[in-house]
Each structure stands twice: as C-alpha cells, then as structure tokens.
Amino acid sequence: MNTPRIVGILNTTPDSYFDGGKFNHIDDALRRVGGLLQEGADIIDIGGESTGPGSKDVSTDEELSRVIPVIKEMRNQKPEVRISIDTYKAEVAKEAVAAGAYMINDITAGRGDANMFAVMAETNATVVLMYAKDTSARTTVANTDYDDVIETVSAFLSSRVAEAEGAGVDRSRIIIDPGMGHFVSSKPEYSFEILRRLHELKDIAPIFVSPSRKSFLAGEENLPPSDRLPATIVASAVAARNGATYIRTHDVLAVRRGCAVMRNL
Asked: d(Cα 21, Cα 39) in Å, to the nearest integer?
C-alpha cells in the first residue's frame, strides 16, 4: 500500500453539507488552511460552489469572488502550498490557475462547461475527472441502480479521459474520481462496492476519492455529518488500501493517522 496524498477541503460556501458558512470570510478561510496544513494536508482543495442535493446555482462572478482572493493570499503567505480548485466552470478554473492553483477538480468531468477541457489543456494543469450519475453539476437524491457499478464507472471515466486527451490534456496529468454518495446513488451499497473494488480502476489513471462524511456513511442510525468521522476514517483507510492515490477529506489529521495504521496491516 502506498501512502496516499491527503487533500484538505476548504469550502468558501454558505451551503456545503458539513462546513457551509464556516469559512466564507478570507481570514477564516486562511486560518482553516493553516490548520489543514498543520494536520498534514498535502493539497488544499478550495471550492466556491456547493453541488450537493438542494444546493443553489452560483454565478461565475460570485464563485470567483469567493475563491480567487483566498487563492492569491494563500500563495502570498505560503508559496509552497499546493492548491486545487474545485469547480466545473472553465472561467473559474482558468482564473484559479492564473492565481496559483495547480490542480482543477471537476465533478462533471468536463460535461458542465464545453470550454473546460480547452482550459485544462492550455493551463497544463493536473486535472481530476469525476464520475457522477447526473448530467448536470447539481446532484440529485435518486436510488439509481446498476448492473455492475464498477463497469459503469470504468466505462464513463475511460471515455472522459479519452476525450480530455483528444482535447490536448496530457494523460500524465489526469486523475480519476469514481464518485461517492449521492453522486453515484442514494443507495449506500454502491459506494461501498466502489471502495471494495477500487483497485479495478487503477489502470485508467491515479485514483482520487472523497468519502468524507458523505451520506452513505450515515449507517442504520442515519447519523448526521457531524457524527460520521469514525466511518470516514474507515472508508478512507480502505480506499487507500485498495489503490487510492489521493484522499480528499474534511478531517486531515484523523484520516492521515487512519491510513498510517492501514499501511501496517
């Protein structure tokens, strides 16, 4: 088992399911960055628009105003920090890379904006392409069924990787994310199957996963996000054991320690 890179989540949004509203102001966001780095984050993934169930559309200008000042200040204060921009909008991605981001994390895998692959190619950014059951960025609560979820995810991601390459994105810079929770299905069993069979995707590209406090970890008690840390640690460690190169999480220290234990088993 390789040691995964830990991607710390920074949401500058009012409506994210776990930390919405906590880091809307630049001072709060920068304190959060400092805490994530102290806990051992390798990358900071900043997002200015929630795309979870019930979230609202955000204009490009609003999203830019939420993320660009933070990225610039992060770069000024900590030039060594590796920054990812979580967006499906090409203009936001382009401006974020210009401001100092090196990675574009697109949950629509280029489907949300026809210009995204061109931006990915021209900026020479590292990119994350994610599977999602919905064609739009706004995910839905739906009990989607699969004959073979890994087969579906693999076919989708292989197709998106090929399209990105055709648009000029270097294959060596492409990372894949199989999706988790409502992005795949509101039935938890499919997210667990993805975790169990994650290694079957490793030949496509390096794997990026984000199980952090998501709905499929609520369990029989239907736990709220605030009580899903133990499940998040287990899911993240299993993902690392089964081939994930990147683990995206709200809980950097706990997940890093959990992955370290799994590495010794």
From this structure: 21
pLDDT digits (tens, 9 = 90+) for 46-59: 999 888 777 778 89
Token readout for 221 is 């008690």
Is residue 248 among the annotated active site residues? yes
User: Which of 214, 228, 241, 256 does the annotation list as catalytic?
Assistant: 214
Please give the Cα distance from 77 to 157 (Å, whole number).
36
Closest CA to 204 of 179, 175, 183: 175
| pTM of the shown model | 0.94
Phi-psi region of 27 (alpha: psi -120 to 50; beta: other; left: phi over 0): alpha
123-153 confidence digits (pLDDT tens): 999 999 999 999 888 788 889 999 999 999 9
Q: Which two tokens stand for residue 31?
A: 């304190």
**Contacts with 188 (C-beta within 8 Å, 6 or more apart), sequence order:** 215, 216, 217, 218
5 labelled catalytic: no
User: Domains, the chain, ranges and CATH?
Assistant: 5-263 (3.20.20.20)
- In degrees, to the nearest 5, what angle opens at C-alpha 177 toward C-alphas 127 and 140? 115
Residue 197 gets which letter from DSSP?
T
Give me the catalytic one of 133, 197, 228, 248.
248
Q: 261 - beta bridge partners?
A: none
